[in-house]
């Protein structure tokens, strides 16, 4: 059963076989509307029960999360990391269930609340991993921490990859539960735009092919007509023969009927599509009902509401006039307007002034005591770990409270078809109308108040000038970019980038197609080694949190630290390009290619380079989310470029930092670099451009076995006992997934598939093509490891581990001797 539907039916929710009979019967007969009309109440109760269960789990997680918002001693570092990991993993399960409910429920108002809850939960997941936290430790370690951008889980472990396999065993979860979920709506809502862009790009490619074909031999009209007739008649004859053969095979039952889908995946897909159509209808019903209710309230209750508000404001004005002898000033709109003062008998305007006077009366001794207390508190904070309050917990709590106050009290049986709730719409629209009318009333009352002041007090016409309040901190003026193409449309800019090969067509590849699970023994290896190798599953989770969720989910990028650039390093053929394409596909993003070999000969000169960067940034913002790919990113920072390389790889070296600097929180663009030999360039320059560095290792034995099995079956071959998959996985040690894919495509051909019934495939057939491919040698892997140990994050992690060992007395006399020798050398130099 599909993963989404398997999460719908947890162990606590049981569905009998009698409930599934109408599903199978109606789906096999193709009567989807009858099925959904007859069983929509059953599915509504199922998803409602799943939502209720998820809310209970979320409330329990919130309690644990609030306990972590505080200060802890440095001795509790390991315990804090373990608690954060537990909360993080439980949030993953909640987000997965909320995504299922939001994707398949029909009720439009419930889906709005679920969307808020899902976005806030996903934001909290990214925040736990990426958000900055104040993590200060003892004096020696604080220098290490002060230099890094402090994160909650990342800063505590000084590692981008967190291994949660110990939490998985504690909570009795599966490896699939550790996968970071991507909300379904991220790509589904952008499908119309994606299809339109793909169609437009295909049209441009067709025009390019026509332009290329203009140089061919010209034919006369008679010859062209004869040739077209021959091609058309042959095509129609072949189509007719295929149709007759297919009809005969169906009549003799030699092949299954394609119109009757007997697989569960196809049936469930039809149900999903039906529910998506009904969701659109329900959303339209909600919008129509909101407009009708708003119009009704404005015409029936609007005059009375305005009169009541004006009377209350006038009463407050004359009350203040009686108290102070002067007409007061009505608060401005950004201060709350009349809603800040109406209904209050005695405004507390003088409270702040009284507090200020009390502070002024304090003696110097009391002030010195307070300063001493603040200094002591600051010293204690420097010796401890302080986790900042979350920016998403308030949103999650508010959504949970709304569910408890509203939806948990409404029985599902009252609205089995999941239509919009009229009474709730009336309450919401009345509040909205009141806010709008209050703005209008405030504007009118300000004019009336000004006339009163002029008539009674003889004040001059015009409002008083506001006193400028100096805000602390320097203003950072953002330099506006000059628009080099002010008169051109988005379509023309898009067409130019497609014709020049900058915008690439995305292949149909998803993250699920990139094979690899999370490391299931990572927490055990952390205790033995300083940094265990992350698996492909860990890398996919990491890039999902750094790339897909921030640019795909609303509000996450603005409220979490900005990750503008990511570098993916790994040996050749390990699937880096495929992984970037899968990330862009999951986010529904536009893919741009700024590889040096792709832009060579295009936009020459300084003016051309400026135009290229301008087009990339402008179109990227217009078509956001956008992923910008830079292959062979190491060559951009090489000290000496080989003379044989004519692609000018250092062309964007100065422009790339400027492009990254111009990106803000509102720009959903990410630059992803790819490299397979990063040790050939300057590590410092590379690290200054790319904020996050992720390394992919060659596949392990289990991944290689799964890869062989998957690729052989995917090419149409059959797995038999004679095909030793385990032996293939052993002999392919040192080869990457790209090498294995190339070997399978060479061996499993159409000619070989035609013979497999008589002579099944054997492992020996794959050995010869595999031996002709150059493997990844140990020297290359060691160079990659040494380079990764010199990256800023790994240097800080190494220093932190050394200082912890010194603190616990685990370092022997050799370490002390080395440190003393270093000190003597420094003295000699001086």
Describe the structure.
The chain is mostly helical and 830 residues long. The protein has 33 helices and nine strands. Strands 4-6-7-8-5-9 form a six-stranded mixed β-sheet, with helices on both faces. It has a three-stranded antiparallel β-sheet with strand order 1-3-2. Helix 24 links the parallel strand 7 (626-630) and strand 8. Helix 3 (32-67) runs antiparallel to helix 4 (77-104) and helix 28 crosses helix 30 (764-771). The longest helix is centred in the middle third of the chain and has 61 residues, at 264-324. The protein is globular and about 105 Å long. 27% of the residues are buried. Residues 5-39, 131-151, 343-362, 460-476 and 811-830 have low confidence and may be disordered.
Number of strands: 9
How many individual helices?
33
pLDDT < 50 stretches:
5-39, 131-151, 343-362, 460-476, 811-830
Helix-residue proportion:
55-70%
| Binned strand content | under 5%
SSE arrangement:
Layout: H1 3-6, H2 17-29, H3 32-67, E1 71-73, H4 77-104, H5 108-130, E2 134-135, H6 139-147, H7 153-157, H8 165-170, H9 185-188, H10 191-212, H11 221-251, H12 264-324, H13 351-360, H14 364-382, E3 384-386, H15 393-405, H16 422-457, H17 490-499, E4 503-504, H18 522-528, H19 536-552, H20 556-559, E5 565-569, H21 576-587, E6 590-593, H22 596-599, H23 605-622, E7 626-630, H24 655-661, E8 669-675, H25 683-689, E9 692-695, H26 701-714, H27 725-731, H28 737-747, H29 750-755, H30 764-771, H31 778-789, H32 792-807, H33 813-829
Helix pairs in contact: 2-3, 3-4, 3-15, 4-5, 5-15, 5-19, 6-32, 12-16, 17-23, 19-21, 26-27, 26-28, 28-30
């Amino acid at each position: 059963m599909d993963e989404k539907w398997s999460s719908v039916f947890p162990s606590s929710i049981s569905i009998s076989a009698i409930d599934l009979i109408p599903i199978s019967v109606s789906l096999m007969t193709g009567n989807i509307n009858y099925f959904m009309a007859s069983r929509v109440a059953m599915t509504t109760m199922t998803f409602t029960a799943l939502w209720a269960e998820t809310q209970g789990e979320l409330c329990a997680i919130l309690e644990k999360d609030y306990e972590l918002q505080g200060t802890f001693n440095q001795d509790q570092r390991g315990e804090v990391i373990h608690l954060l990991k537990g909360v993080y993993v439980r949030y993953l399960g909640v987000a997965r269930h909320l995504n299922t409910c939001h994707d398949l429920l029909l009720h439009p108002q419930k889906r709005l609340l679920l969307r808020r809850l899902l976005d806030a939960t996903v934001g909290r997941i990214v925040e736990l991993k990426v958000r900055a936290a104040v993590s200060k430790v003892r004096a020696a370690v604080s220098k290490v921490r002060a230099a890094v951008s402090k994160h909650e889980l990342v800063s505590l472990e000084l590692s981008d990859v967190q291994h949660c396999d110990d939490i998985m065993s504690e909570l009795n979860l599966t490896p699939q539960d550790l996968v970071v979920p991507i909300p379904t709506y991220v790509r589904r809502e952008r499908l119309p735009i994606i299809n339109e862009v793909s169609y437009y790009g295909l049209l441009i490619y067709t025009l390019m092919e026509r332009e290329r074909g203009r140089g061919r031999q010209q034919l006369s009209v008679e010859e062209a007509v004869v040739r077209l007739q021959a091609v058309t008649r042959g095509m129609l004859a072949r189509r007719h023969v295929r149709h007759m053969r297919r009809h005969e095979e169906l009549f003799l039952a030699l092949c299954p009927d394609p119109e009757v889908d007997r697989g569960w995946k196809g049936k469930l897909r039809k149900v999903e599509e039906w529910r998506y159509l009904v969701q659109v209808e329900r959303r339209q019903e909600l919008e129509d009902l909101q407009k009708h209710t708003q119009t009704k309230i404005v015409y029936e209750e609007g005059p009375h509401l305005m009169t009541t508000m004006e009377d209350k404001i006038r009463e407050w004005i004359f009350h203040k006039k009686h108290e102070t002898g002067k007409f007061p000033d009505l608060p401005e709109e950004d201060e709350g307007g009349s809603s800040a003062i109406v209904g209050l008998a005695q405004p507390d305007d003088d409270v702040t002034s009284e507090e200020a006077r009390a502070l002024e009366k304090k003696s110097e001794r009391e002030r010195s005591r307070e300063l001493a207390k603040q200094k002591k508190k600051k010293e204690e904070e420097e010796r401890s770990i302080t986790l900042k309050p979350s920016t998403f917990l308030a949103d999650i709590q508010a959504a949970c409270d709304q569910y408890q106050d509203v939806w948990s009290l409404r029985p599902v049986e009252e609205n089995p078809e999941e239509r919009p709730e009229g009474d709730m719409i009336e309450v919401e629209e009345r509040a909205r109308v009141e806010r709008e009318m209050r703005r209008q009333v405030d504007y009118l009352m300000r004019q009336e108040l000004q006339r009163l002041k002029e008539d009674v007090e003889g004040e001059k016409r015009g409002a008083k000038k506001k006193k400028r309040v100096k805000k602390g901190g320097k203003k950072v003026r953002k330099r506006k970019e000059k628009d080099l193409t002010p008169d051109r449309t988005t379509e023309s800019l898009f067409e130019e980038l497609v014709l020049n090969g900058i915008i690439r067509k995305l292949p149909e590849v998803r993250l699920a197609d990139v094979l690899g699970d999370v490391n299931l023994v990572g927490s055990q290896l952390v205790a033995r080694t300083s940094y265990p190798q992350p698996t492909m599953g860990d890398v996919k989770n990491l890039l999902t949190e750094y790339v897909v969720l921030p640019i795909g989910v609303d509000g996450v990028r603005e409220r979490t630290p900005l990750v503008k650039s990511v570098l993916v390093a790994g040996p050749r053929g390990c699937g880096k390009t495929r992984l970037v394409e899968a990330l862009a596909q999951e986010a529904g993003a536009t893919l741009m290619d700024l590889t040096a070999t792709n832009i060579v000969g295009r936009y020459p000169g300084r003016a051309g380079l400026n135009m290229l960067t301008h087009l990339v940034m402008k179109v990227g913002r217009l078509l956001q989310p956008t992923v910008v790919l830079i292959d062979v990113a190491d060559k951009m920072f090489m000290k000496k470029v080989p003379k044989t390389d004519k692609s000018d790889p250092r062309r964007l070296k100065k422009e790339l930092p400027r492009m990254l600097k111009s990106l803000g929180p509102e720009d959903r663009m990410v630059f992803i670099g790819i490299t397979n030999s990063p040790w050939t360039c300057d590590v410092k320059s590379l690290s200054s451009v790319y904020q996050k560095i992720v390394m992919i290792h060659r596949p392990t034995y289990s991944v290689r076995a799964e890869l062989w099995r998957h690729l052989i079956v995917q090419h149409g071959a059959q797995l038999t006992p004679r095909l030793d998959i385990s032996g293939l996985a052993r002999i392919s040690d040192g080869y990457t997934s790209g090498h294995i894919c190339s070997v399978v495509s060479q061996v499993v051909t159409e000619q070989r598939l035609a013979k497999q019934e008589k002579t099944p495939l054997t492992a020996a057939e794959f050995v010869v093509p595999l031996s002709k491919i150059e493997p990844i040698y140990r020297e290359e892997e060691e160079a990659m490891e040494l380079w990764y140990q010199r990256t800023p994050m790994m240097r800080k992690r190494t220093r932190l581990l050394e200082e912890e060992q010194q603190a616990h007395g685990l370092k022997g006399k050799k370490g002390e001797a080395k440190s003393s020798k270093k000190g003597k050398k420094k003295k000699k130099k001086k």
